Amino acid sequence: MNAATVLLSPWRASPAWTRWGSVILGAGLLLVTLLLAIFMRPDSWAMAAGSVVGFGEFFLGMFLLAPALLLAVDGRQLRVPGLQRAALAGVAWLGLGLIMVPAALLRLAGGHGTVIAGLLALALCGGLLMGLLPRMLSAFVGLLPMTFNALRPHVDLPAPGQPGFLTLVAAAVASMLLLCALCWWRQLRAADPYRQGWMQPMVLQFRRAGRAGSWHGFAGGLPDSAQQIRQQPDWMRPMIDLGPSGPERPRYSLRVAIGGMFVPMTFAGRARQLAVAVLPSVLVIGLVLLQAGQRHGGFSWAMLTPWAGMFAWFGGFIGLLIVLLAVMQLGQRWQKDNAELPLLALLPGLGAPARLRRDLLAASLLPGAGVQLLLLAALAALAWYAHMGWPAVLAVLLAQAIGIGVLVAFTLAIIGGRPLPGWGTGTLSVACFVVTACGLSFALLDRSAHGILLLVAASAWAVLALVLAWLGWRGWRGLQDRPHPFLSNAG
Amino acid sequence: MNAQLRDFHADTSPLAVHGLAHGYEGSNVLTGVDLALAPGSVLGLIGRNGAGKSTLIRAMLGLLRPLAGEARVFGEPAHALPDAAKARLAYVPQQPEALAWLSAAQMLDYVGRFYPRWDEAFARNTLARWSIPANKLLAKLSPGERQRVDLIRALASQPDLLLLDEPAAALDPVARRELLREVALRAGEAGTTVLFSTHIVSDLERVASEVAFLHRGRLLIHCGVDETKEHYARLWLPARLSAAAPAQALSRRRHEDGSVSLVVERDASGHWPEAAHLPGARLDALGLEDLFVEIAE
After folding, report:
1. Domain boundaries defined on chain B
2. What ipTM was estimated for this complex?
3. Mind listing the pLDDT tens digit for each residue in A369-395?
4. A237 and A138, same structural domain?
5. Which residue of B73, B76, B137 to mutate against A (max A Cβ within 10 Å)?
6. At a CB cut-off of 8 Å and minimum separation 6, what does A382 contact?
7. How many H-runs (helices) and E-runs (strands) does chain A carry?
8. Domain B2-97+159-216 top-level CATH class
9. Which of A229, A274, B164, B264 has the fewest beta carbons closer than 10 A?
10. Domain that includes residue A453, residue range
């Protein structure tokens, strides 16, 4: 194996989507660096450019270097001689190049080469560690910069360029490399190194997601409910409340059979699910408040007002995400002809066809719509409390309306047997995200109403609403046309 | 061509299809299938991978919309079954994956609430007898355990009609034997009509009273298991007689030396084709497995 092959091994080992994502990211970073060079003062741009490149290198470490572990695992499992060493050497040499080349160039441009190299090494190793750590822990790596900032006033940590900074960086890099080595070694020697789970590295997810070729591929690329449960530890098992299910309560029974987000849980089960979902957000909000409190000399509710826009933005975004996950689960159910569909189609006691359709729609729509309405109430209260102004309130309301629209339209399309083709579903989902994100951003960042912006936003919302209405109508007619709703969409 | 095509008794047969045709993306999976099960019979549906067995079973139950033809269950259209018909019917798909988020006990409890004749004791005892952990989530069971839970689900509803798609595929030999015993018992004592698809000819010989052979979407044979040896045979003709080979044959193979092998059947009056009586021609009796291989090869 020659040097070029070794150097290119991480590139070749990474799934296509992470590889080309890295290229796009690299191009974007180059563009930002050039813009900094043009618009910033010559004495300060190199350090700023170093920070920008460092930001990108974190993702390169995760998406380009970490997948080499998959190559090493394959090499070990297939007993291919030299492949493990090549994967490791590829990571080392490419990583070194990703640090040294930008640092050298920025040094030539007047920057402090060693400090920039230290920052880049820190970012790259952080990304690599994020990819190799068990999924349960990797999220905490992303919180490190925020934690670092929060600790700064309490612990005497040197800033870039200050004495002791390089020693600190060297210690941090060495620790992270040690952890990376441990994770690498552990995964290579695992009894089943391809098994997915919360204790397995995040890179294992990349290959699965890489199989996504279409919406159905994308949905298929994501783990279905059975695979998710297999990955979960026993203490996370869903606590389902079968209580009143049976022919007397078909709607409730249908929720049990559809599963996922729709399944009725016991109070303890729902509380635990919420805790797991909310805990990371609470952690982040806590850190944000801690920093804000440090700046303002103590905590007060008034401090929340400047953050209201951010909470509203995330609320709108998360609402849409929840809805898309819900319809994706529903799409998975209607793809399998050996799971719930035949069981439900032949289950006696679910009622006459017309009533069954109504109950099925209620079972599929009401849980998601309930979450959307709760979010809507919370965000409306926030908007009112923070005096956000009517464009912002309208954007928040419309974001939730789009969420409900997506839920209804996609659900009808799936149950009616007329889901959009892969490219159509992907495009529509992205359009929903873009319109929601842009609408919220414009309205929340600049709370004064600008005529032209409002017109553009209103047009975008209107087009999206029309497309969703068409999709829903098409699905509704398909549902009426089907002899029963439990026919698989797989063919 | 059906060797011994049964009449289409849609009203009296627990399960019947007529002129069933289906296809995916331009290719035919089923072509004009006619099949009716006699009450209390055990039909083994046999065919190679991709022959259309699972599609046929799903079409028979109204789980897909065929391109042509009709399917009836207890005389009712399969795609619009009333609750009374559903309550008398059980189906186990190939590699069942339903309700993975429930434990085995929860799943049986849930499903049992819908069936008026649900045998809770049978479900509980069989779960214990087959050593399946009742409180383990279905998602975490092995494929064989999962299949057995679904078989218990199907049998505990005490169906009059039982359809099993490759029920033994994930089972070990002991579990397979137990399943076949249970199927034979149900058919013999309770008069349950059973249709099961399989690749394993020995399973079929052990419990089936009838066999249906599906090949490339066509139903080539449907007759009693014991009748196959008497009705079908391999006819070998030397090269000089190859021109006399009958036009009607279930399979036809020409050898390098010019001789021909055909799978032939008796006609309506019980006679072999005339070529079988020519000097030099040879007629070999075929066991079920040989018959399957000869036609499918």
Report:
1. 2-97+159-216, 229-296
2. 0.88
3. 888 888 888 877 877 777 767 777 777
4. no
5. B137
6. A308, A311, A312, A315
7. 20, 0
8. alpha beta
9. A274
10. 228-491
